[in-house]
Design brief:
With 543 residues, the protein is of the alpha/beta class. It contains 23 helices and 15 strands. A 7-stranded parallel β-sheet has the order 9-10-11-12-13-14-15. Helix 17 links the parallel strand 10 and strand 11.
């Protein structure tokens, strides 16, 4: 392994040493040796200064760090890991190490399961539990076996990454045991990512009264900090690695080291503490950077010039441009949609039932009903359609039908296995139709279920800019399509974006917040999103 791509933090070093201790436990090594790595990891994680740049002599002055571990810390700083850890890792199957994620299975327990029962995978463990083989081992019993059985159930329910709603549900459980007003969610969740790994929470205060109440197996990392150091703790727990590396460079240029505890004066060693993030940015002469932008894409340079974009906000959205009703595959009536729009304060919602489900003559009847409903409601329903882009490139309705609609979304719903050029040309052809306003869910992905189909998004973006066609930010948490990096590129190409929930039920209109998170991650301002327009301006844009 070569040099790490970013500065190695104390947390990185501590995690490597902790992992070594756990592997030694699985291997049944000397408990004193295991304890030495655990002690060193705790010590490193608690320090207010970075250890990555220290020499071995300086490292050995830290209590709990001997010459051997000091050398390994130096190796971690240079390569991201160390040789002895890699060698030990090679002797233990990864499927065995994975079992440490099962509640009730620690390194010592796993050593017994691995060596006495030959358990090498989750399936092996589950079979042993069902066969009541664990309770026959010394030190095990029916109670421990039941704990592990429940742990297996929890483990199987926990995906490698959570959707936004799944993360919201976990946070609701955790928030119930945390002190009011003294914590914040950090990490990729706070940055608005489309999916989330382990949740990171920063708590200002003592851990003694809450740590034990956090639900086991919740997939949450909780970090406790003193209230006066909350600003840098939250900042360091939120930013991506690239963002934090660049912010650390800015701090270094001004004579400081960035740590979760605060900014350390490189000359005097004085620690500057900050109670909130805005104070940190101000101290460094920067504009405060919204969490969604903290990805290391040039936002720090703009913040230093006080030139960050004025990001779109949920309050800027005047309507939803993608909704389905009982006329196709939805579970809500037209009246339901109008009422939902009024509750949200919208000026309009576009009814975009599938062309494959609504025949042209039925579409005429729907338009007539929309006119009647609009006379009774302030939120106006737009007569639209989500028209299929067929496998041969033609659209699901003829032009004479499309011409009578207020808004047209064109989407790929079939032929996903076509090669990239064929599938891309289908979308390019659809954009050339003067009646098509928006390309729906442009990559076709379903998070955790179906990958994006093969489409050349660079060609699609350039053609969208040339034809004036908007690309959708599908706000369904199961899609979140486009992904933020493509939104960012589309904006740079001058392409307009359209946020739509793809709502099939009333409750799904609230998913607009997920789409706006993606828009913000893509650096969008209100001018980039077509449904920030007033009703009259929107109809002028679609005409």
């Amino acid at each position: 392994m070569g040099a790490p791509e970013r500065e190695v933090t104390n947390r990185d070093v501590a995690e490597q040493l902790t992992f070594m201790a756990r592997l030694l436990g699985i291997a049944g090594e000397d408990p004193y040796r295991i304890a030495a790595y655990e002690r060193a990891a705790r010590q490193i994680d608690s320090l207010s200064f970075p250890v990555a740049g220290l020499g071995e002599e300086e490292l050995t002055r830290i209590p709990g760090i001997g010459e051997k571990i000091a050398g390994q810390i130096r190796e971690i700083a240079a390569t991201g890991t160390f040789g002895e850890l890699k060698d030990l890792q090679a002797t233990i199957p990864g499927s065995v190490v994975e079992l440490l994620g099962v509640a009730g299975v620690g390194p010592k327990t796993l050593h017994t399961l691995y060596t006495k029962l030959g358990i090498r995978s989750l399936d092996d463990l589950e079979r042993a539990v069902k066969g009541h083989r664990l309770r026959a081992l010394s030190g095990f019993g029916a109670k421990k076996e039941e704990t592990i059985r429940r742990g297996i159930e929890q483990f199987r329910k926990m995906p490698s990454r959570m959707s936004r709603p799944q993360a919201d549900a976990v946070l609701a459980d955790v928030a119930a045991v945390l002190p009011d007003g003294r914590f914040a969610v950090a990490g990729s969740y706070r940055r608005g990512s489309s999916s989330v790994g382990r949740l990171a929470i920063v708590v200002a205060g003592d851990q003694s009264d809450v740590a034990d109440r956090i639900p086991a197996g919740a997939g949450v990392d909780v970090r406790f900090t003193e209230p006066g150091r909350y600003g840098t703790a939250l900042l360091c727990a939120t930013g991506s690695r690239r963002f934090l590396a660049r912010l650390g460079e800015v701090a270094a240029e001004q004579g400081y080291r960035l740590t979760p505890e605060g900014l350390v004066d490189s000359a005097s060693g004085r620690l500057w503490e900050f109670a909130d993030e805005e104070e940190v940015f101000s101290f460094l002469g920067m504009e405060a950077i919204p969490p969604e932008l903290r990805e290391g894409r040039g936002e720090i340079e703009l913040a230093l010039r006080h030139a960050l974009p004025d990001l779109v906000d949920l309050a800027d959205i005047r309507g939803d441009l993608h909704a389905h009703t009982t006329w196709s595959d939805g579970r809500q009536s037209l009246e339901d949609v109008a009422e939902a729009g009024e509750r949200r304060g919208y000026e309009y919602i576009a009814i975009t039932d599938h062309s494959s489900k609504v025949r042209p003559e039925a579409l005429l009847r729907q338009q007539a009903e929309i006119e009647r409903i609009n006379r009774r409601h302030d939120c106006q329903l737009l007569s639209g359609s989500e028209v299929d882009i067929r496998s041969d490139g033609t659209l699901g309705y003829e032009n004479r039908v499309l011409a009578d609609l207020d808004l047209v979304i064109a989407s790929v719903h079939s032929g996903f296995a076509q090669d990239q050029d064929v599938l891309t040309r289908r979308i390019l052809t659809a954009m050339e139709n003067e009646h098509v306003d928006i390309i729906g869910h442009p990559t076709g992905r379903l998070l955790g279920q179906r990958p994006a189909y093969a489409v050349d998004l660079e060609r699609v973006m350039k053609h969208a800019a040339a034809t004036g066609t908007a690309l959708e930010i599908n706000a369904s948490p199961h899609r979140l399509d486009l992904e933020d990096i493509y939104i960012w590129h589309a904006k740079k190409e001058g392409v307009k974006l359209a946020a739509g929930t793809d709502a099939h039920r009333n409750g799904e209109f609230a998913n607009m917040r997920y789409g706006i998170l993606m828009a913000r991650r893509g650096w969008c301002t209100p001018d980039d999103i077509v449904n920030t327009l007033s009703l009259s301006a929107l109809l002028e844009w679609t005409s």
